[in-house]
Design goal:
This protein is an alpha/beta fold. Helices cover 29% and strands 24% of the residues. The chain has helices at residues 16-21, 62-74, 84-92, 177-184, 192-201, 203-222, and strands at 3-6, 25-28, 43-46, 79-82, 96-99, 105-113, 128-135, 137-141, 147-151, 159-162, 166-169. The strands form two sheets. A nine-stranded mixed beta sheet has the order 2-1-3-4-11-10-9-6-7, with helices on both faces. It has a two-stranded antiparallel ribbon with strand order 5-8. Helix 2 (62-74) crosses helix 3 and helix 4 (177-184) runs antiparallel to helix 5 (192-201). 47% of the residues are buried.
Length: 227
C-alpha cells in the first residue's frame, strides 16, 4: 500500500498521520520543486497550507493539485483532503471557496457529526468531537453530489464525502500540539499562548478521535483493490 501525499509547506506536514500511517506515505513537496504526479498511488492525501485555494500565483502547483484531486475522485482513488486540501478538492469538483465572514476559526474547536456520518466508512462513531482548526477561508458551496458529514458553529461545512472514496475535512486531524504551536508562533494572535494550551490539553482526545479515522482510511485503501 502506497499513499501519495501532497505537502504544501514544511510547517504543515503529516504530523500524527505520519505516525498512524507509517512508511506507506510518499511525500511530494512541490514548494521544493518536486513535480505533482499525474496520478496518485493507491491512495492520496492533500495537506493544508497558508495560501488560499485560488492563490495560484502564490502556490503555482495548485492547478496540478486540483487536477490530481479531480482525477482521484473520477477514478475512485481513496482520498483524504485536509483544510487547504479540502478547499482545493471543492474547487476542483465545481464547488465554491471564499474568504469566511465569521473570522478566523482557530484552536481546539467542536465539530459535530451529521446523520450521514453514522454509516460513513471513516467518520462513523465520531459523534461530537474536538478538532484542531486554523482557517478563515471556507467552503461555501459543496460540489454536486457531496454528502455533508460534519458541521460546526462558526463554519458549517466541516467534512464531506464525494464519490466513492474521497473525503474532505476543513479541520486538521494531523496536527500535533507542536505543529499547532509552530503555526501560532509569529502569527500576531493575542491569544496564541491560550490557544496553544487549549490544543495541548486536548491532545489525548485528538488522538483518541482521529487515529481510528486514519486507520479506517488505510483500511479503505487496502480493500479498494488498488493496494
Amino acid at each position: 500500500m502506497r499513499i501519495t501525499v501532497i505537502e504544501h509547506e514544511a510547517e504543515a506536514g503529516l504530523g500524527y498521520l505520519g505516525e498512524w500511517l507509517g512508511p506507506a506515505c510518499d511525500v511530494v513537496r512541490p514548494y521544493l520543486g518536486e513535480e505533482i504526479p499525474a496520478r496518485p498511488a493507491d491512495g492520496l492525501i492533500v495537506l493544508g497550507g497558508a495560501a488560499a485555494a485560488w492563490e495560484d500565483e502564490r502556490s503555482p502547483w495548485q492547478p496540478a493539485t486540483r487536477d490530481l484531486l479531480r482525477r482521484a475522485v473520477d477514478e475512485s482513488t481513496p482520498t483524504l483532503a485536509i483544510c487547504l486540501g479540502a478547499q482545493l478538492l471543492t474547487l476542483a469538483c465545481g464547488g465554491t471557496v471564499e474568504r469566511g465572514t465569521n473570522g478566523l476559526e482557530v484552536g481546539a474547536r467542536e465539530v459535530v457529526a451529521l446523520p450521514a456520518a453514522a454509516d460513513d466508512r471513516l467518520l462513523a462513531g465520531v459523534g461530537t468531537a474536538v478538532a484542531v482548526q486554523y482557517h478563515q477561508d471556507t467552503m461555501t458551496r459543496l460540489p454536486d453530489g457531496a454528502v455533508p458529514l460534519m458541521t460546526g458553529a462558526q463554519y458549517p461545512n466541516q467534512a464531506y464525502r464525494l464519490g466513492a472514496a474521497a473525503w474532505a475535512v476543513q479541520f486538521h486531524p494531523e496536527a500535533t500540539p507542536e505543529i499547532f504551536t509552530s503555526w501560532t508562533s509569529g502569527s500576531g494572535l493575542d491569544t496564541a499562548e491560550e490557544l496553544n494550551a487549549e490544543v495541548k490539553a486536548a491532545e489525548n482526545a485528538l488522538v483518541a478521535t482521529w487515529r481510528p479515522v486514519a486507520e479506517a482510511f488505510a483500511e479503505v485503501i487496502r480493500t479498494s483493490g488498488r493496494a
